[in-house]
Amino acid sequence: MSTLSDLLPYDDAEIYIKRAHHSLRPVGTFRQLLRRPTKLIESLRKYVVGDPVQFIDWKIYARSDQTLLREIKEESSVHVGLIFDVCDSMFWPTQEEALQLSKGVPQKMEIAWRVGLFLAASHLAKGDSLAFGIRTDTELYWIRSPKSKSEVLRFFQSLRESHFVTSLRERVTSPRTLDRTWILSDGLNGIVPVPYAAKIRTYIHIMASLEIDISWLDDSFSYFDNKVLPKDYTSSALLPVYSQKLSEWQRQFKNEVLTQGLKYLQVSDSTPLELFYRDIGSNGQL
Amino acid sequence: MDNFNFSWTSNFFYTALFGGLGAFLWWLVRIRFRSFRLPILRVLDIPSAELPKLRTTPPPWIPYLCFLVGFLCLLGLTLKPSSKVNDNAPVDGQRVLVVLDLSPSVSSVITSLRYQEVFSSFVDTLDGKSILSVVRTDRRDAIVGENHKAVKDAIGSIDFHSFGTKLGETLKHALSQNDSYTDIVIFSDKDAFSWSDLNWKFLASDRKISRVELGNVSQRDNFFVKDLVVQSAPDAKVMEWTVGLGSTTAKGNQSVKVSVLAGDEVLAEQRTAFEGGEGPVSLSWPQSKLNSFEGNSLRIQLDVNDGIAIDNLFQVSKQFVSAAALVVGDTGGERQLEDPSQALISMLELLGIKVERRDQATADSQKVKRSFVINWLGSHGRNTCQLGEPKTSHHYWLIPETIGAYSQVCDCLNKIELEAARIASLSGAPSKVAPSTPIPCSTLKSPEEWSAALIQHNFFQMGGQLGSSAESLALRGKVGGIDVVAFQIPFTPLAGIPHGNWPMLVKAFVDAENFDSSKNSWHRIESLFDMEDPALISSSNVPYRESALEELSAKDLPSAWNWQSHSSGAVIQDSDDSDPLPWIMSVIKIVMVIFVVEIGYGVFSRLKLTMLAIFFSLVSMKSEGALILSSLSPHPLNMQDLSKSLESRTSLSLDPNARIYPKLTSAALKEPWLFVNDPTSLLGPSGAFLPELEGWIRKGGILILQADTPLFQLEKFTSEGFISTVKKGSWRPIAPDHELMRSFYLLDSLPACEGAAWQEYRYDGRTAILAIPFKLTSILSNTPESVTCSALNDKERLTRVVVNLFMVSLATDYKKDQIHLPEILKRLR
After folding, report:
1. C-alpha to C-alpha distance for B599 and B601, rounded to whole angstroms
2. ipTM
């Protein structure tokens, strides 16, 4: 069964996505059926030497032998922000750690990129404009986002080549407005604050399957996390209480997310694709 | 651990060793748990208290350094006793008590001049750092001073005493004055007598004790007076003494001159060639020589060159030969016959006291110079208070004749007091003693009141149970300045004290009197601090054991003082219990043993389990057994078909070959069942069953008769055949609800021919004998007999019957058996 670790930006999920496309979706304060970005002519002016030649409207030149420049105003239906949490826990398990466990599980960051780029591609398909935010422990900055599906694919390809580790892209200025934000985080550092009053905000809570099911615990290891308070546990100490404590935290975290007016969706590398498509496509999320 | 040496090197070594051991253990523990990062733990609220903390994280440095310093201080303090031992010299401000043993035995090993030098050099090694106290065994007070030179001067010259104050006595006195000494240094030889009352190991538990060796006592021979026996009677004209000589040597022919001196006058002397060991010397002189002697003591002088010079002079109290007592007491009849006065006189004479007896006190009897006046007092009017003029130099013993005669004693006491007051007023001398109120003798009603009245007059109890003055032997005190012992009990067996004990008691009373102590006694003093009069000390003799020069071995003595403590850092043994290292070593040993046992047990238990697993996997013992059909018939039976059929239907297996017994033997009666074709073969010559068969049936055997026998005949068999209780059974046909019909297969009827019925003989609630009207075994065997009856051709039916029969014989009516009922009910609930 395919899981989220096999998710591609373009997928046979198109059918679900298409269905979603036909549903009413919110733009600003109203819903409209707008499926393509418009490229209306903003203005025409005479060519001045030094202007980029690709903006010359050659059709007008053919008709009237005049070199006129066409300045295009791009419009999109929705400004979408995808904010990736890149704190250290998102890069768990690292390759060495996965080797130690001899388990081929993807990092949470890989799932975040896969889900994020899938959402990006879907949004681009609907004529939305994108902004990629990177949230580190200290700051939130924005990187150049893909403008087209092919760019999404190239980005995805480069990520896959670097095992989803690097996200080095040039920084851009912050977007002026965001109608819709997706926050992709594992929630271990709390809810990522986003300084935009988007109408719809969705928190995609990314978890590793190794965190959900800890039957892989080995008694020859001790388990620790020294981020907040140095603690060590043995598997015999963890196993009896872990699942209860985890579900407690999940419930509490979800409540917190919902209280802040965000939608909540929890995924992991073991989430079946079908389930993901259903959840992401339903309720007008996309 | 006696020879456990300590140095800083070894301390460092042990610290490093333990540190290394700790690190190794840490590593062992650490390597078991490789750590793995699990970030989700930061949000899960899992209590960490119950979990082991294994990861090393850099410590918070300031608290850690504080801890480290604290730990090192603790370590230092823990090892402090060892370090204290290393540092032998007393440090600043320590209080050092020096005990100078000046007993006679020391004089045999060191001269007083040399002694002084040794002490002086000892004080020099202390370097003036500590507070020094010096106590000598011949003085009561310690000399204390921080100025060591002043102490040295205050000690003055060192000379040896003759009395027997031991080290323990001196030290006890010194420590009772001040207990804050940290070091005790004892100057002494190895003489056993001096050390005999000192438990220095006890003292060493909280202070350091060392000893300055003055020399070996066995270096020189010593001659001394061991004992003196006065052979002559106290009033004899010629005094005969036997002086027992002792020596520490057994060799040689030493010439010893023994002389008895009264002042400067030689009473007798004799030179003897002394062989060594022990030996007597006899001396005699006329007693008239003593009449002019006014001194207090006679002396026995040994003229010999030996180890201890002091003990060559042995002093004897003149009292020993001239003490006198007056006993006033009339027996009223035969004197010698059970006369307590006479008994008392004998006892006193044994003690060397001359005794004069008078029935009545006369005027001349009072003039004699005596020490004791003993007056018997009774209620018969014979013995009244007859003391004449009481003198302060006399001791007065007032003894009641009977237990209840205390009122006479009381009157006599009052009389003594009156007389004393009168004499005092006559002489015109101011009375030293305040006049006290006379005891109201007439009002005394019981010994308790009597003793209470005496105690009010400052009498004290002698003998008896402590604090219970009414049960005392006597009460002693002064009346008008005169020493009086008022006895509570007469010297008769009536008092409850047997005759045999009286001599010892009288000796104790005489000793307690001290004979006007300061002048007339001689002692071997053992405690300086009980003596009130210093004059006694000079008149005392050297204790016997002191002269005998017994020696202790070095292990019974404290360690020797180390003179080179400053330079060499040499070691003095410390006591075991103040040193922690033996304990630490013990703990380590225990831990090692636990470690080995733990690992050993782990390996062994795994080994054991493995062996058990191998054993059980290889040796799988199936619980199985086969039935063997046993038959009492002349023909062999091959039951192969039945066997196969039985194995395929049930879990039973049957041996294909039946056991055939031609006759009823004891072997046949060991079988659980018997198939019998001819019932008559079971009968003995008298027509009754064989008695063994009866017992076999009683024990549970099942007899299967395979013959068409009529019921009356069967009844005849059992009624005549059985003799005992088995006879009480009864024959009945097999009912349709019989266990044979349902024990395995449900049968509607049993096969039979021509209306013949299966019969059973029921005994003890079970089928004991089953009568089958045909030969079942031979029909079912591989070589069957031919049968005419069609019912018997149905082999399937017969097999079913046989299966049921086996089941019944194996389990009887197990469906009636309610042994499993509780379990079944439990399951149903």
Report:
1. 5
2. 0.77
